[in-house]
Structures are given as C-alpha cells and as structure tokens.
Prior knowledge:
The relative contact order is 0.14. The radius of gyration is 24 Å and the shape is elongated. Helix 2 packs parallel to helix 3 (63-73), helix 6 (123-149) packs across helix 8 (210-235) and helix 7 packs across helix 8. The model has no long low-confidence stretch (mean pLDDT 89). Strands 6, 7, 8, 9, 10, 11 and 12 form a 7-stranded antiparallel sheet that branches. A hairpin with a 4-residue loop joins strand 7 (165-179) and strand 8 (184-191). By secondary structure, it is of the alpha/beta class. It is 41% helix and 29% strand. It has 2 domains: 5-120, Response regulator (Rossmann fold, 3-Layer(aba) Sandwich); 124-291, Chemotaxis protein chec (3-Layer(aba) Sandwich), CATH 3.40.1550.
Amino acid sequence: MNNIRIVIVDDSPFSISVLSGMLEKNGFNVVGSASNLKEVKEVVEELKPDLVTMDMVLADTDGLECTRVVHEIDPNIRVIAVSSMMDDEIIAQAKKTNISAYIQKPIDEEELVLAINRISANDDLYQELKERYCDIFKQAFTFSFNNFIKEIPKFTDIEKEERKIEHVENGISIVMGIIGKYCGRLIITLTNESAGKFVEKILKRPAKDSQEILNVVAEFGNIVGGNACSMINRENKLFGVRIAPPTTIYGESINISRNSLDAMSFFTVTFAAGEINVNIGFNKGAVEWMSNI
C-alpha cells in the first residue's frame, strides 16, 4: 500500500510540511501539492495521484469544490478531508461530495495512516476476512460457552440455499449489524425451550420471566459478536470492525428479511441444553465512512 501516490491540497505551507513529513515517514509517495482551485486542477491532471488530502477551507474556494474538480478528472481518486473545521453539517456535505474520510487538525499520525490504508485496501484484504471470519466467530462462541456454562460446544456447518427471509418458529432471534472496513450482520436464533435452558445454565437458576431470558440471550449475542470483532481486529487492524447494538425479535412465527451478502456462513452450535443457529455475512462493497466525529 505504501506505493500510493498522494497530492496534498492546503493553502498553509506549514500544514503541507507537516502532512508531507507524516506521509513520507510512513512510506507514502507525496508527488505534489496545491493551494487553490487552479493548482488542484493542474496538479491532479499532470500527476494523476491515487489519493488527495483535502483542506476544507482555502483562499479562493473550499474543499468541496476542489473535490468535485478532482472527481471530474478521475472519479477513482480517493479524497480524505484534513481540516481544522469539522461539524455535522460539513461532514454531511463531505459525504455527499464522495469524500472517503474526514480527519480533523491537529492531525493524529496513526489515524491518518490507518484511514489511508483502509480506504486504499485491495481485494486481498477482503479475501483475508472471507477466509477467516467464520472460524473466528466459532472461536468466540467456544470462548463464551466455556466461560458462561463451562461447556465446549459442537459446530455443524450448514449449506443453505439463498433466501430473502429467515424464518423462526416459536423462538428468539438476535440481529446485530457489523460495521467497519467491511460491513455485515450476525443473526443468532434459538427456540424458546433452548433459550430457557441456556439462560438457566448461565444464571444457575431458572429465569424470572420471559424478559430476563430475552435480556440474557441478547447480551450473550452481543458478547460473542464483540469478542469476534476484537479477534478480527487483532489479526489485522485495517478491518476496524465492531458490533452494533442487538435487536431482539421473538414470537410464535418470525420472518426476518435479509439482503444477499457477498460472503455468508451458516452453522449450528450444539450444547447440552439444545442448539443455536447462526448466520454471519459480510459485503465486499459495504464500507463504513471514516471520521473521528
């Protein structure tokens, strides 16, 4: 990734010097700079960079207009906003202008390098996730089962035809989004009977009521998902994945609409009290917009 060719757009010689130093120190190739709209057009057309860092406040224009000019020349050039100005309104405008990430000055070097590497990652990074995520989620289940109920679960992979509806009879379904470099979702389902026995094993007593069962199952799913995401990030911090708060669905007949994902895995977790069905998937093209706001 350190062959990335970068142009810096900023009307402050000091900021250009600081940015150039950070980028070159980390192996990136700073090929030029520009301080106004005319220079942006000339430099980008001549040097054809892979990425542009963009100040949002310039003497004769703003970073949004400059970004539009960059993308008129080549829509594949990635733009990262690097500016002292940062609020909800300008973030929203930046997203609409196809700016890939937003970093506020004073610049954190690690944050800048991570943002560049994430948005520039190629197919190899997605392939790495695709090959590892299912095993990592199984490890997270094993770790959680062992800690909560002192039991090692068994896993059975399931081949399932592509369906737009996940159907559950008399049970509970925990749905969690996964966000990061690649986005996806985790669905955990189990019958009411298995849920009751599972919660009793965790609490070392029968559940007080159905609400306690729902709460325990949702938190268990949240812990498994959070542990798995942490394990993925430890293998490669470029993924930056994290779990979103769980949504709990329950009833006599549940239908969950789910979109087709680029990578999908189904498996059953079997333990003494019953079984849990798991569906995990990621989208290659679904990338979280990056900002520290």
